Amino acid sequence: MFEQFVELTVDVRDRESQLFVRVGGEGPPVLLLHGHPRTSATWHRVAPRLVEAGFQVVCPDLRGYGRSSKPEPTRDHSAHSKRATARDMLHLMNQLGHEQFALAGHDRGSYSALRLALDYPSAVSKLALLDCIPISEHLSRANANFATRWWHWFFYAQPEIPERVITADPDSWYQGDPVIMGQENYDEWRQAVRNPATIRAMLEDYRAGLTIDREHEEADLAAGKILQMPLLVLWSLRDDLELLYGNPLDIWKDWASDLRGHGVESGHHMAEEAPDELAMTLINFF
């Protein structure tokens, strides 16, 4: 994987955190943020295509995930909030010499991407969010259907129990497939989810989502703060976002002034399952 990339460990925020990051190519910068329970390796079929198209591509492991630092949990979950992760990403890109960059995030990474774009709008030239509507929008619409399909959000929020359940047999819990993921991506992911500190950090990501992250989003919406940069929203047609809400763009209209998007013929992990379509869509947008 990532044959044209270098691997770095970058100190961010006055050495508070260390991020494992892959960087490749030359040209306009693009930052790619992975989702749960993946690492930056999930982009291994997409990132090289962006490099070939003339971009410099930056693929970090989010705080708590993969080989990046795993901060101690805090009572208010702020150590794993999307605001904390967004600051990490801004400092990372600044240290790599980029004051402004294009940004794409998938799943949990999309929430960090959204927060980065809301908190630091001048840093983000264009934003792509994959399989995403804001956390607060999910929760404001939560019903029996949502709770049945997305029950893991509420299970992960419980103290201590999910750590014990998942670490007992992480392979069975997450059920990765090396054929779909690619063997090297699968091996890296499998090593990550066998680390109890990674499991705890990923759960804290979800706990932050239901508490402090939701509060930050609701405050932005109440203040009329919306995305000013061009926004591309993509969603997997063989996942359940459209089943839950219909066209996700109808929800995003309240959050963005320049919006476009469409469904992708894929399961949830579109970077692994539909890399050609995703890469071409991102190249054309960026």
From TrEMBL:
The keyword Disulfide bond does not apply. One of its GO terms (molecular function) is hydrolase activity. Pfam families: Abhydrolase_1 (PF00561). Residues 28-158 form the AB hydrolase-1 domain. Keywords: Hydrolase. It comes from the Bacteria. This is Alpha/beta hydrolase.
